[in-house]
Amino acid sequence: MYLTPEIKQNIFKDYGKSVHDTGSSESQIALFTHRIKHLTEHMKQNKKDLVTKRSLIILVGKRRRLLDYLKTQEIERYRTIIKQLGIRK
Fold first, then answer.
1. What is the pTM of this model?
2. DSSP labels for 7-70?
3. Distances (CA, A) of 14 to 20, 44, 55
4. What's the per-residue H, E or C state across 28-41?
């Protein structure tokens, strides 16, 4: 399994305020980015998997909405998370 509880805790610890901070925008964006990277690798091998493609598009949209929200609320936090995760834009 690609997303174990230990990996989730590491993501929340690195990008959130603490291990238990699972709801902050930064930790959610980081979690979505991890899942997007995994699904992108899957799509490179399985080009005709339309269900995974749809899921990937939905996740990218969710991450984009969270990034837009963060950009309107606190621009510095937005810039920090973009730089840490290496997301374009």
1. 0.91
2. HHHHHHHHHSSSTT--SSHHHHHHHHHHHHHHHHHHHHH-TT-HHHHHHHHHHHHHHHHHHHHH
3. 11, 28, 25
4. HHHHHHHHHHHHHH
With beta carbons less than 8 A apart as the criterion, state whether 34 and 56 touch. Answer: no
Give me the domains of the chain, ranges plus CATH numbers.
Answer: 27-89 (1.10.287.10)
pLDDT of residue 89: 63
The predicted structure's pLDDT at residue 88: 82
pLDDT tens-digit readout, 34-60: 999 999 999 999 999 999 999 999 999
Under a CB-based contact definition with an 8 Å cutoff, are residues 71 and 78 in contact? yes
